Amino acid sequence: MKVKTPKQKIIIVLPIHIQVIAHTLPPAPGWRVLARIRIQQNTNTITPNDDGLNDVFVFDILAQNPNDYVNNEFVIFNRWGDVVYESKPYNNDWGGTNQNGKPLTEGTYYYILRLDFASGLILKGDVTILR
Hints:
The protein is mainly β.
């Protein structure tokens, strides 16, 4: 006797930025462009080694709208749930250090970015430090 199991859908959520790009020229005769999108995946890994690449953890929403969330709060937790770093406001400048400015060990940490308490706009996820 075979037991049928329901098909499962797997949904993977990636942090992405979608930008619509408008063009004035048609792509080719007979073709129409309904929309073009560029998907840019934001990284959740930092490599704080002062090479200028991924040295700090950056949120696009703060970089693009710095005056919209001036009362934001950023908190980093270790894997045991201990708060290891806090910043209010956060200025896209965390480089993998603890509250005293000492480097944290390599590994995965968890963050909460409270953008706006009144509207409940909160971002949360994980960030990996590689040294």
